[in-house]
Design a protein that fits this description.
mainly alpha; DNA-binding; 9 helices; 0% strand; homodimer
Chain lengths: 207, 207
DNA sequence: ACAGTTCTGTACTGAGTTGTCAACTACGGT
DNA sequence: ACCGTAGTTGACAACTCAGTACAGAACTGT
């Protein structure tokens, strides 16, 4: 009975996320968002309640994509667990993977974890953002830990190792590559680091 | 023959650094800087040429402190190298160490690497900042790598391992803890992760 | 066709921002 | 004691920003 929305919500939030990624939260004005998304200021306020609202909705969408993709990419039978983890780690080094078909971003700095970047910039004064970033991390940590436990069951990882600790460590490495990638280090170097980290995972003791 | 400066340059830059750390670059106005440093707007422009100038000078000072402390804390005889690295790693997890006597910052988020934080926020559009952050990283990387080579000479680290790669990896872990620390994770958890990372360093093969 | 309801974009307001400038202040040499 | 030089200050003008309000456009159900 009323005029339907002329834009696609997810498409708009995705464009906003890209903008926030490249210019930061405080570095993007509502006009920037309007230009990046292609819809007017009024629509932005009506649909998302202003700049902060856009950010929260964009982060929520990011979380949803993360929570859908990561477990799907890491879960599976015990036999291939370590290989799945290996593949995931190598992909993550070129940017947090969110879908199967998406190629690595051309600009490494723009591929860093969206939630982490926002938390670094405004997390100190914005508990909502901090919380959201923590949730993103938790989803990944449980998925990686589960994958590690599968690898342990399959005899590929030392069964005495704490899977949760190792998962944390691997994710911290990924977050670290986000930061170092923003400096302008070459993807090849980052990939080499990821391989080193993977190689250091504790294997079972053979007798 | 002229009026001497009434403020201490380094003191002002240190206060500015604190301000930039807590509110970010774009989140800090020149008035904020003026309030934090205690000197007027005009003096800031006269001495440092505006907000961006203040940032660059503050980062230069940060780099200098880093370049002085890290090698001093990590260099030394081969025997204690691994232990020095261990101590440095554990301290770094509570914030990048810059001096011997400074206690860990009360707020973990405010203790993260200054250069890394600025590079994350405005690095995409500011090559100067990116360069400075890269320099900070390089100084640390060479110091850690040198320490690792000393540990290798002493038989504490696998001599076949690539010291440069390991140093990169360790620093990436530290940068990762900066990010995760900003989420609000407990220092105890971060310390535990650092211990895990240290424990995974490749030891020499015993026969 | 029409009416009602929702969407869209532009114009406006008040607050906040940056960078500059001229007046003022303090100090050292003479 | 004075005077020139350099440091300091607060105020100012131009601009940008977030958020709001209003008028027009678009679509659906009758």
């Amino acid at each position: 009975m009323a005029r339907p929305r002329s834009f696609d919500r997810d498409h708009v939030l995705h464009a906003a996320e890209r903008q926030f990624r490249t210019t930061g939260y405080n570095g993007t004005s509502v006009d920037d968002l309007s230009a990046a998304t292609g819809i007017g200021r009024g629509s932005l306020y009506a649909a998302f309640d202003g700049k902060h609202g856009v950010l929260m909705h964009a982060m929520t969408g990011y979380y949803a994509r993360l929570a859908q993709f990561a477990p799907q990419a890491l879960a599976g039978p015990d036999e291939g667990a370590l290989e799945r983890l290996h593949r995931y780690l190598l992909r993550a080094v070129n940017g947090v993977p969110l879908a199967d078909d998406v190629p690595p971003a051309p600009d490494r700095a723009a591929a860093a974890c969206f939630a982490a970047k926002m938390a670094m910039e405004i997390g100190t004064s914005d508990p909502e953002v901090r919380r959201m970033a923590r949730d993103c991390f938790s989803v990944l940590a449980t998925a990686v830990a589960e994958c590690l436990r599968a690898a342990q069951r399959n005899g590929d990882i030392d069964p005495d190792a704490d899977a949760d600790d190792l998962a944390y460590l691997l994710l911290i490495v990924i977050r670290g590559t986000d930061v170092v990638g923003a400096y302008g280090h070459s993807p090849a170097r980052l990939t080499s680091i990821a391989e080193s980290a993977f190689a250091l995972l504790p294997r079972p003791h053979h007798h």
